[in-house]
Amino acid sequence: MASISSGSLTRVLYSYPCKAKIPKPLYSLLFKKSPVVGVASMSYDKELAAAKKAASLAARLCQKVQKALLQSDVQSKSDKSPVTVADYGSQAIVSFVLEREFPSDSESFSLVAEEDSGDLRKEDAQETLERITKLVNDTLSSDETYSVSPLSANDVLAAIDSGKSEGGSHGRHWVLDPIDGTKGFVRGDQYAIALALLDEGKVVLGVLACPNLPLSSIGSHDQHSSQYKVGCLFSAKVGAGTDMQSLDGSPPIKVHVSAIEDPEEASFFESFEAAHSMHDLSSSIAKKLGVKAPPVRIDSQAKYGALSRGDGAIYLRFPHKGYREKIWDHAAGYIVVTEAGGVVADAAGNALDFSRGRYLDLDTGIIVTNLKLMPSLLKAVTESLNEKASSSS
Ligand SMILES: Nc1ncnc2c1ncn2[C@@H]1O[C@H](COP(=O)(O)OS(=O)(=O)O)[C@@H](OP(=O)(O)O)[C@H]1O
Ligand SMILES: [Mg+2]
Ligand SMILES: [Mg+2]
Ligand SMILES: [Mg+2]
C-alpha cells in the first residue's frame, strides 16, 4: 500500500516467522505493491488546499446551525434518515468552493455526494430553501477571499445537485459527505465533513473536518467534557502522511496510528448508533482478541480521525444484513487512516474498492487497525462471524 513505508513493511515481514501463515487476502493487503502507483507521482497540492478550504468553510456553517438547532431544521428523507439545513448548506458550500477553485475543470467536474435537492424543490420547502441560501451566503461572505455576489436559491439548488455523479474507475471524482453522522449532529455530538478525491478509482487525498472532536486524545478522557478545546481538521495526501490541525488554523502536525501490539492494551471504536453496527458482534470480536477496555462509541468518520492519531487502536463496523455502504462514508476516513500507517479492510481482509460507483461492494463489514494487530483482528473477526452464522442456522 502507498501508505506503508518500506521501513514498516520490513518490520511487518520480520514479525511473521512464516509468511505462508498470513491469510491470503490479508497478505495482498499488507504486501502488495501500491495500488496508487500510477497516480502517486502527482502532487495534488492545489486540490488538497481547496479541499481543506471547502471543508473548513462548511464546518463553519455546520457549527452555526448546531449551536441554534431548531426542530424544524431536521427533515426526514425517503429512507427515514435525518437531513438538516446544515447537510444541504454544507454540500452547497463545498460544491461551490471546488467549482470556483478549479474553473478550468468545469466540463469534467464530478462530485459524488450524499444529498440531492429533490425535497427542497417541493412547494412546502420554500422557507427551508431560503434559510439554507442565507446560511450559505453568510458563510461565504465571512471568508474574506470570497468577494462573490450572493447566490440565489436556484444557484444553491444547482450547487447541491452537482453532487449527482456516479463516480467510477476513470478520471477524477470528488467524494463528499456534507455531514457524516447527522444523528450525532442533531444530538449535539460528533459529526464530520468528509471530502476525498478519487483519481482513476483510487483515493488520492482526503479531508475530515470534525468540529466537536477535542484536539487532545479522546482515549484518555470524557469526550463530552467542555474542558477541552475542540475542532480538528485532518488531511491526508497519497504518499505524504496525515496531518492534523485545529479548525481555527493552527499549524498542522503529523499524526500516526497507535503502535500497540498487544490487544489487551488496545481500545476500539464503533458506531454510536446500534442500528448502524452490530455491537454484540464487536463485543464478541473484542473478547476473542483479549481487548479489556470498553468500546468507545462515537458518531461519524471522527472515528477514523481519532484512530489516525492513536486515540484507540481498532475500529469495528458491522452493519446489519442488507445495508450497502456508500463511498462517502469511508473515502476520506480511509486515506486519513492509511496515510497515518493504518490498514482498512473488509471483514474478509480485502482492500476497499472505491472505483465501483456510489456504493462499496464488500464482504460483511469494515475493520481498521494498525499493521501489527490486523492479522489477529482478522482471525477473531472470521471466528466470530462463523460462530454467528452457525448459531443462526
Ligand atoms: N442502517 C445503517 N447501517 C449502517 N450504516 C448506516 C445505516 N443507516 C445509515 N448509516 C450510515 O452511517 C453513517 C453514520 O456513520 P456512523 O455509523 O459511523 O455513525 S453513528 O455512530 O451511527 O452515528 C450515516 O451517515 P450520514 O447519513 O452521513 O449521517 C449513514 O450513511
Ligand atoms: Mg445521511
Ligand atoms: Mg455519512
Ligand atoms: Mg451525511
TrEMBL record:
Protein family membership: Belongs to the inositol monophosphatase superfamily.
The protein's role, per its UniProt record: Converts adenosine 3'-phosphate 5'-phosphosulfate (PAPS) to adenosine 5'-phosphosulfate (APS) and 3'(2')-phosphoadenosine 5'-phosphate (PAP) to AMP.
Organism: Nyssa sinensis
PROSITE patterns: IMP_1, IMP_2
Binding site for Mg(2+): 114, 177, 179-180, 329
Chemical reaction(s) catalysed: adenosine 2',5'-bisphosphate + H2O = AMP + phosphate; adenosine 3',5'-bisphosphate + H2O = AMP + phosphate; 1D-myo-inositol 1,4-bisphosphate + H2O = 1D-myo-inositol 4-phosphate + phosphate; 3'-phosphoadenylyl sulfate + H2O = adenosine 5'-phosphosulfate + phosphate
Pathway in which the depicted protein is active: Signal transduction; phosphatidylinositol signaling pathway
The protein, known as: 3'(2'),5'-bisphosphate nucleotidase
Leading EC class: hydrolase
Documented EC number(s): 3.1.3.7
